[in-house]
Each structure stands twice: as C-alpha cells, then as structure tokens.
Design a protein that fits this description.
Helix content is about 45%, strand content about 20%. Strand 11 and strand 12 form a beta hairpin. The radius of gyration is 37 Å and the shape is rod-shaped. It is of the alpha+beta class and about 400 residues long. Helix 2 runs antiparallel to helix 5 and helix 5 packs antiparallel against helix 6. The protein folds into two domains: about 170 residues, GAF domain (Beta-Lactamase, 2-Layer Sandwich); about 150 residues, Histidine kinase-like ATPase, C-terminal domain (Heat Shock Protein 90), CATH 3.30.565.10.
C-alpha cells in the first residue's frame, strides 16, 4: 500500500476529542465489531473514526495489513472520503476502485492505495454526526451488498447507542458529584450555624432568667418573659434545622433507646418548661403509664415539645390544652389536643412534609420543620404520628410499639 499521511496528535487534541477517543475505548463491543467486519468482508483494516469539520482521528482500529494507523492517529481530513460522508451523511461503498467510475481517479484511493472500501456514518441520538465506521483493503472485495451494508449500519447504530449511554452516565456522575458536594457544604454550613447560634442564645436565655430573679418589677418581668419565649422558639428552630440536615443528608434521625425510659418524667419536664414560657395557659394532663417503654427520652421530649408548643401557640389563651399518655402491653400512646380552627384538608395532606405550613399568623412564623421532625422521630421508633382535626378540636397522636 502507499504511504500513509498521518501523525499521532493525541497530546495536541482538544479536550472534547480526547474525551471522545477515551469514550470509544471504554466500549468493549468496539474491538469485537472491528474484528467481525474484517472477518465478514475479508478486508484487512477497519476503524472507528471521529470526524469533525477540520479533523479525522482514529478512535479504535483493527489492522491486519500493517496500515499503521493506531488510536489517536490523524489523517489529513481533506484526503479522506469520510470528509465527504460528513457533508452528505450517506454510506460510501466500493467493491473495486479500478472499476468504479466515480472513484477510479479519486485522490483518496490513489493516495492510500486501497481497492475496496466501505464507510457508514455514526449519528448520535441528538442527530449530531460523530464520525464513521469504515474498512479498507488493498484488494477488491464484494462489499456492496444489502447484507454487508446492513451489518455496518447496525454496528454504527450500536456504537452510537453505547457512546450516548456513556455520555449520559458521565453527565449523571458529574451531577451526582456536584449534588454530593453541595450536600456536604450545606450540612457543614447548617452544623456550624447551629453551633454558633447556640452559644449566644444560651447567654440570652440565662440572662433573661437572671433578670427576672433580680428585678420583680412587672414591666421587667414581662420583658424577661418575652426574651425567654423568643429564646425557646429560637432553640427549637435550631434543633429542627440540625435534625433536618441530619435526617436528609445523614441517612435519617438517629435515636438511642433506653429499655425502661421514664416517659412520665420526660413529659412532665417538657410541660414545666413550656409553662414557664406560657404561664397563663392551662394544660390538663392524664398519664397512665403502667408498662415500661423502650424509647429515646430526649427525642420523645423533642417530639412532645414540638406538639405541645404548637398546641399552645395555635389556640386561644383562654382555652385548655389536653395531654393524655398511656402505655399498655402493646404500645405507648401520646395525644396532644387543643381547641381551635379546623386544619384544611389540603394542609392536612402535606402537614408532615418539610417546610409545609398552614395558615400562619404574622407573629407565628417559622421554618415549618417541627411536625416533619416529630414524624421522623416517630418513624425512628418504629411508630407513627397521626393527626385528626374537627371544627372543635385538633389532636396529634403518637403511637409506638412498647418493645420496638
């Protein structure tokens, strides 16, 4: 065969072309395809070529005739028939150059010394022309048949399919990596924010309590109550925010169970804390905890604080909030009920979703995470949190297995 006009240019190729060559090399079927087309046609050289407006580059080759072109090798674009295929995007098939009226004096076979030739376009799913699947040989071969052209077309489509699949995988991996980095940054931000907020918040709360003890003046007491109330709400927001980050980014809310948790004591402590915030409110309690419960007391307290805080916040000051709790041989049950407006059906359907809120008064703004966190704590205990609402009363009920 005649001399080959090419040079190895992998290091000087644009990143996109290097990526294409690398992608083709990752398709295991390509090597088999190139070998099969040569065995089926009797031709000695086959290749997958990346063809652009100004480059012809071999992505993969099968060479039994010492043509000398290897992956990354480049032919001068204008010396190839693939350049013409790029323009009209139709297959070119030649059994015998010497007997072909169109190609007998064509510069390409004269330059490269082949007599038989077949090349079909490789078109990607988005309609973009990628390049060609081609084969050549210095001797004539019968390749202009429906069977051979059909085989090449099928293989070209298969290569395009695999290339598109690899491209989609690459895009998905890139997006996943970006999402992971964003998630990590978000988690770090929330954790640092929560930690940095707690210190000044604790100082504010402690100062408010000290102020109330030192000065019994009514005005000072009212201001102290406002500060304590705001501090309590802010602490709840921080807890919910951190738990949301942990639940969404860290695989769920974690709990540490105690086999015989004193839930009566846990619930009473929460009620006493909230009575300090809402001293004018009436809270009726009915506890009947006859069976020991395996639970995380701190998490149950957090759940109860969210429910009771909502009940006190969303009901009239003159109304009474009812808290009932019991345990039997099967389950622990906690119910927090308050009179007030009925929760709309549309709101009920998304009440336990994060950042979901119903009708909110201007002085009762929040993140909308409290009920979501409460439901996640219930789920972590193997239980559930339900809600029922009528024009007379709204009730949130927690039920968890006694030994879960």
């Amino acid at each position: 065969m005649a001399s080959i006009y090419y040079l190895i240019i992998v290091k000087n190729s644009p990143e996109s072309i290097l990526s294409d060559i690398n992608a083709i090399s990752k398709i295991p079927a390509v090597a088999n395809i190139l070998e099969i087309v040569c065995q089926s046609t009797g031709m000695g050289f086959s290749a997958v070529a990346r063809v652009t407006e100004d480059r012809w580059i071999a992505c993969a080759t099968f060479d039994q005739i010492n043509f000398g072109l290897v992956p990354g090798g480049e032919l001068v674009l204008e010396t190839t028939i693939c350049n013409e295929i790029r323009e009209h995007q139709k297959a070119v098939v030649i059994d015998n150059v010497a007997e072909d009226e169109k190609y007998a004096h064509h510069h390409t076979p004269l330059m490269y010394g082949f007599q038989s030739y077949i090349s079909v376009p490789i078109t990607l799913r988005n309609g973009k022309f990628f390049g060609t699947l081609c084969a050549i040989d210095p001797n004539p071969h019968k390749v202009d048949t429906p069977q051979t052209i059909g085989m090449f077309t099928m293989f070209a489509d298969l290569i395009a399919f695999h290339f598109d699949a690899l491209d989609q995988v690459s895009i998905s991996e890139q997006r996943l990596q970006e999402e992971l980095e964003i998630s990590q940054l978000r988690e770090q931000f929330i954790a640092i924010l929560g930690h940095d907020l707690r210190n000044p918040l604790n100082a504010i709360s402690n100062s408010a309590q000290l102020l109330s003890r030192l000065n019994q003046e009514e005005r000072v007491q009212r201001l102290g109550d406002v500060i304590k109330n705001s501090s309590f709400r802010m602490n709840g927001l921080i807890e919910n925010m951190l738990d949301f980050a942990s639940g969404r980014l860290g695989g769920g809310i974690t709990i540490t169970k105690t086999p015989d948790e004193d839930l009566g004591k846990v619930l009473t402590q929460v009620i006493e804390e909230l009575k300090m915030i809402y001293p004018e409110r009436s809270i009726k309690t009915t506890f009947c905890l006859d069976y020991p419960v395996s639970a995380d007391g701190k998490r149950i307290a957090q759940l109860f604080s969210n429910l009771l805080g909502n009940a006190l916040s969303y009901s009239d000051r003159e109304s009474e909030v009812e808290v009932t709790a019991f345990s039997n041989k099967d389950e622990f049950n906690l119910c927090v009920a308050n009179p007030g407006k009925q929760i709309p059906t549309a709101t009920m359907e998304r009440l336990f979703q994060p950042f979901s809120r119903g009708e909110v008064e201007p002085n009762k703004q929040g993140l909308g995470l409290g009920l979501y966190i409460a439901s996640e704590i219930a789920n972590a205990h193997g239980g559930k949190l339900d809600v029922s609402s009528t024009p007379e009363k709204t009730c949130f009920t927690l039920s968890i297995p006694i030994n879960n």
